[in-house]
UniProtKB/TrEMBL annotation:
One of the GO BP terms on file: carbohydrate metabolic process
Name of the protein in its database record: 1,4-alpha-glucan branching enzyme
Domain called Glycosyl hydrolase family 13 catalytic: residue spans: 147-523
Domain of life the protein comes from: Bacteria
Species of origin: Cylindrospermum stagnale PCC 7417
Organism phylogeny: Bacteria, Bacillati, Cyanobacteriota, Cyanophyceae, Nostocales
């Protein structure tokens, strides 16, 4: 429903639509909140000169008509305009005679003016329609995701953009790097929030205020032909998604649905459905709900808020044919006791909607930051998400890599599929946007870490990442050992971290990127690595020198051995023995095998005849590993 509000265009006909729920007409709409107490609403903007008025003139601006709606009230205004990119706001007069400039909560465009956070719309240009869905959408467990922070990804590419791709907007720059994605081997891209954020300070995107609009700076064409380029601002996103889908790369968006940004010092600025109420505290969209603490919380106890966010998800899934959503900080809108009207209901409704539209394998992944990270698994099963972000593996990589010593607790972290319901799986990573890079972490997590002295320590954890169960996620720049420090807390935490692309071709970058390419290809060639099967399960952490079968951890040598298996492409059982040397020294170990015969080391290109279920005294290079494979 909400996706149909905002500005609707049909040729040169333009209709502004603004909806308000009313519990007197539909008691289900909200249990806490009130009516907006509006006397009248005018539409003001730079379109007014086209209807023989002065731009941004409230004295002549057209007034919206209030109409009946089954769930509340709909304000609308219709006009005819020539082709163009237009900015507007609502000028609201309340019953107490207070007046306020407000944005449109359902606008599909954010405005160009950095000082006013206008809403916007387009007449003409290339409409967003018929976005091509991916031809063969993979199950979430088969995805190898590349996480992109759009600003950081493109900042050092503007002067080195692909000349074959027209345009200089950030989305165009990313489109010019699709060959790089294909060469790396990933099959999905996850964009950190692209929805419009409030303010012009640097942001990671986690302070949304316009959910149906993409952040203006990502579509800014920076083109000499400004009019034509502005008409195609949203079409740029379609072109990017169409191109990614044509290259068999899935698209996942990061959705921030726990909270919205509101500027309490500037009435009218921020999330419009807050300021469109005479008393903003009466807004049924806003209110305390579970564990928030960030900005203003959306009140999922009220059905109108539930419907609004569901329609936001539906809009991006339908209009742009995206292949999944990562739900940020779901702990903030999850109710563990009783019926959960928050993330659980949202996921359930999305599953039902997607089933009804015959769409399968849509990834609905949650970031669920429970104090005990393993508690997130039980919550994920209850919520019905396809998976959740899985911090334990990353934290173990940070700790073991920096200390140089492996603890037996790493075996629980490596059993990534444990306790997930069938069909659900973790999203696994050894680096993500929330922390400093893995190279920095293994070097001591501080400013000034030497990339040259620490990059090789990340290699065994990269091997683990691509050989463990779960949806794999690689943060932009991780694949070539980019390095920077990021505080774990404090005001300097949200900062710009431009990807240092020149490092992708230096000695370190070349070595690491070749390793990632090889590991990604191995995972794609042998789909049983995506299975949930892992041994040793329920590892006894008192076994500090492997278990009785020779698997697990030897803390004296900092060596890890585990077994994976599953059904291969040919329908036969595939088996793997993965050996990781996390030590800075070569080590000699006996490697156990589940059966005799010839085993191939996929990583190093060697073959070994196994007798007596053992390869004795195998020399393992420091900070390296082996991936033994046999098909039986």
């Amino acid at each position: 429903m909400y996706e149909k509000f905002g500005v609707v265009t049909a040729g040169n006909n333009v209709t502004f639509k603004l909806f308000f729920p009313d519990s007197h007409k539909d008691p289900a709409q909200y249990i806490k909140g009130g009516i907006p107490c509006i006397r009248n609403i005018q539409v003001v903007g730079d379109f007014q000169e086209k209807i023989n008025q002065q731009n941004w003139d409230i004295n002549t601006a057209p007034e919206m008509t209030k109409q009946d709606h089954p769930k509340g009230w709909l304000y609308s205004y219709e006009t005819t305009l020539c082709d163009g990119f237009y900015q507007y706001k609502f000028f609201v007069t309340f019953e107490n005679n207070e007046q306020r400039w407000c944005g449109d909560p359902c606008t599909k465009y954010s405005g160009l003016d950095p000082n006013n956070e206008n809403s916007a719309f387009v007449v003409g240009g290339n409409p967003v329609q018929n976005v091509q869905p991916i031809a063969n959408r993979l199950t979430p467990k088969d995805l190898i995701i590349y996480e992109i922070m759009i600003d950081d990804f493109v900042e050092n590419l503007f002067d080195h953009r692909n000349p074959q791709v027209e345009g200089n907007a950030p989305l165009d720059i990313i489109r010019g790097k699709i060959d790089y994605f294909v060469g790396l081997g990933i099959n999905a891209v996850e964009f950190m929030p692209w929805t419009a954020t409030y303010g012009r300070n640097f942001s990671w995107g986690y302070n949304p205020f316009l959910y149906f609009a993409i952040e203006d700076r990502y579509t800014n064409p920076q083109s000499p032909d400004e009019l034509e380029a502005n008409l195609d601002r949203l079409f740029r996103l379609q072109m990017l998604i169409d191109e990614l889908h044509s290259r068999n790369i899935h698209v996942i968006m990061d959705g921030v649905f726990n909270h919205v940004d509101v500027d309490q010092n500037n009435p009218g600025r921020g999330f419009p459905y807050y300021w469109l109420y005479q008393n903003p505290q009466d807004s049924p969209f806003i209110g305390d709900f579970e564990r928030g603490g960030f900005f203003e919380e959306l009140n999922f106890d009220n059905k109108c808020a539930q419907e609004f966010i569901f329609d936001v998800c539906k809009y991006w899934l339908d209009t742009y044919q995206i292949d999944g959503i990562r739900f940020d900080y779901t702990l903030g809108f999850f109710r563990r006791d009783g019926v959960d009207p928050g993330i659980s209901r949202l996921i359930s409704n999305l599953h039902g909607y997607l089933y009804g539209t015959n769409r399968t394998n849509i990834a609905l992944m949650i970031e669920h930051l429970t104090d005990n990270r393993y508690q997130a698994i039980d919550d994920t099963n209850r919520i019905g998400a396809t998976g959740c972000w899985y911090d334990p593996l990353m934290f173990q990589a940070f700790d073991s890599g920096s200390s140089g010593n492996v603890n037996t607790s790493i075996m629980r972290a490596m059993h990534t599929s444990r306790d997930f319901y069938p069909g659900n799986n973790p999203v696994i990573y050894i680096e993500n946007h929330d922390h400093g890079t893995l190279v920095n972490k293994v070097g001591g997590s501080r400013v000034g870490v030497s990339r040259e002295e620490n990059w090789f320590k990340t290699q065994p954890y990269a091997i683990a990442l691509l050989t463990l169960p779960g949806t794999v996620l690689i943060h932009n720049g991780q694949e070539f050992g980019d390095e920077y420090y990021l505080p774990e807390s404090g005001p300097d935490r949200v900062q710009s971290r431009p990807v240092n692309w020149e490092r992708s071709t230096d000695f370190i970058g070349s070595r690491l990127i070749n390793l990632y390419r090889k590991l990604i290809q191995i995972r794609k060639n042998y789909p049983s690595l995506c299975s949930p099967f892992f041994y040793p399960d329920n590892y006894d952490e008192t076994n500090t020198k492997f278990n009785y079968q020779g698997y697990g951890v030897n803390i004296d040598k900092d060596v890890i051995i585990y077994h994976r298996w599953g059904i291969g492409k040919d329908g036969q059982v595939e088996k793997f023995i993965i050996v990781l040397n996390c030590s800075s020294f070569d080590q000699v170990v006996d490697v156990p095998f589940p059966h005799n015969g010839r085993w191939k080391d996929l990583l190093n290109g060697e073959e070994f005849p196994v007798n007596k279920y053992l390869l004795e005294r195998q020399n393992l290079n420091s900070n390296w590993g082996r991936i033994y494979y046999a098909n039986v």
